[in-house]
Specification:
Layout (H helix, E strand, L loop, with lengths): L3 H13 L2 H8 L3 H15 L4 E4 L2 E4 L1 H26 L6 E7 L1 H16 L3 E7 L2 H9 L5 E5 L7 E15 L18 E4 L5 H12 L5 E5 L3 H9 L5 E4 L7 E2 L2 E2 L1 E3 L7 E9 L6 H11 L1
Parallel strand pairs: 3-4, 3-5, 7-8
Antiparallel strand pairs: 1-2, 5-13, 6-9, 6-12, 6-13, 10-11
Helix pairs in contact: 1-2, 1-3, 1-4, 2-3, 5-9
Length: 289
């Protein structure tokens, strides 16, 4: 019989790529993780890992078992939610991670309403791609993130959609809605590699016929706005993420994108099976409201 607790270790290895990183995510020692994986290989009756020095990768059997592990984890979440449903309406705490403007737009107002129902939110500031990792590692219960490709490990609930606006340095000659093609020769300020919003900006520029000349990077849109206000370049930013940061008395100029603007679709994500948990359901309902 395969121990589901060891499946969790295998999932962490698949998520994080190394025994050391998986151990950190699980709050275990690397040797404990290695022992759990060795025991799981024995239980499965197949080699699950390929070892190359200090690094390991999954065999085809290991990858297949990870897919089953996702299903098992979702069913265990659902079972816990069913049991907790017996005590529906009870007070409790739900951990939520969200990026800064989503905290302002939906999380903080929801916190006020939920507090009146004796449901507390524990809020953590994290970029969307980081919050999904925290969700899958079990460190939070709800992630507010950008809509991304579907996965069987999470369930998503739409919250809101906002367009990207162009940020220009003070005194920039462009007025009115901006054709992105006119910014092909500008320096750009964008988010860091790995942030899905960087992909949105690069795709929008590609559709306008150019590759942005990236000079500065930040995942904090207030920092991006400040750099633009200082004349460091131009940027694309979600509309709710910026709001008049001043640098030496100057502010970035905000303009709409001409034509069809790129969009940020914001969702609340939970581990599949946990959406029926009474506390999580109450939080999701309030966030959507």
């Amino acid at each position: 019989m395969i121990d589901p607790r060891r499946l969790r270790v295998l999932r962490a290895l698949a998520d994080h790529g190394t025994v050391t990183a998986a151990a950190a995510a699980l709050h275990l020692t690397p040797s404990a993780v290695s022992q759990q994986l060795a025991a799981l290989e024995s239980e499965a009756g197949h080699p699950l890992l390929v070892r190359k020095g200090r690094r390991v990768s999954l065999t085809p059997a290991g990858s297949l078992l990870v897919e089953h592990a996702h299903v098992v984890a979702a069913e265990l979440e659902r079972a816990q939610a069913t049991l907790d449903g017996l005590a529906s309406g009870s007070a409790g705490r739900v951990a939520v991670a969200a990026f800064a403007s989503a905290i302002t737009q939906v999380v903080a107002p929801a916190l006020v309403a939920l507090k009146e129902r004796s449901i507390e939110l524990s809020v953590r500031d994290a970029e969307g791609h980081e919050s999904v990792r925290l969700l899958l590692d079990g460190e939070i219960d709800v992630a507010i993130t950008e809509e991304r490709r579907a996965t069987e490990r999470v369930t998503r609930f739409p919250l809101y959609t906002e367009p990207f606006d162009v940020l220009l340095p003070p005194g920039h000659a462009v007025s009115g809605p901006v054709d992105l093609a006119t910014l092909a020769d500008e320096d750009w300020v964008v988010t860091l590699p790995g942030n899905p919003l960087r992909d949105v900006v690069e795709m929008a520029c590609a559709q306008a016929g150019f590759t942005p000349r990236i000079r500065h990077n930040s995942d904090d849109f207030r920092a991006i706005e400040a750099l633009v206000a200082a004349g460091a370049g131009v940027a694309l930013a979600p509309r709710n993420a910026v709001g008049g940061v001043q640098v030496a008395g100057s502010v970035a100029v905000r303009r709409a994108v001409a034509g069809v603007a790129p969009l940020r679709r914001v969702v609340a994500a939970v581990r599949r099976g946990s959406e029926d948990h009474p506390l999580i359901k109450a939080v999701l309902d309030e966030l959507r409201r």
